[in-house]
């Protein structure tokens, strides 16, 4: 396995998916005391999101080629989209509202747009297209599975996580990760422009 590709993918995915923030949002969307429902929602959301990222990451580029869109154009547009996501992470206030009744949150809002939203789907295409080799593709897939395994764990213990980190801790972490994501986004834009002009 390509360790540098794994670490690069792991860092990018950790920043954009934000497992801690996702777990805290998950906690607020599931009624307290519903342990079985909580487990089902967590597993469903993770499985759907992981499948979406791996499939779209592997087959998104050929689909784009059929539409006449180059990977360099995607790098620029994806970078701008990621920058917009990062800007919102740094500047927007996040609201936590307690859920009162049981409902299926696995597809919306947990999988789409939180875990497998436009930003993470774009990032997965960029990571797979950048790798180009089988060992690097395995590394990116392993990074996706690692991030979602961590996210699942944090979702299942979100009640305790909420007590430990609190709202202030989540806001600090969210804004810090937003700054990192902004830098990653600018790098994607730079790579896309450099390849088009080069």
From TrEMBL:
The chain crosses the membrane at residues 6-30, 42-60, 66-87, 107-128, 140-160, 172-190. It is a multi-pass membrane protein. It is found in: Cell membrane. InterPro entries: Multi_antbiot-R_MarC (IPR002771). Keywords: Cell membrane, Membrane, Transmembrane, Transmembrane helix. The keyword Membrane applies. Its main location: membrane. GO terms for cellular component: plasma membrane. PANTHER family: UPF0056 MEMBRANE PROTEIN YHCE. Belongs to the UPF0056 (MarC) family. This is UPF0056 membrane protein. The lineage of its organism: Bacteria, Pseudomonadati, Balneolota, Balneolia, Balneolales.
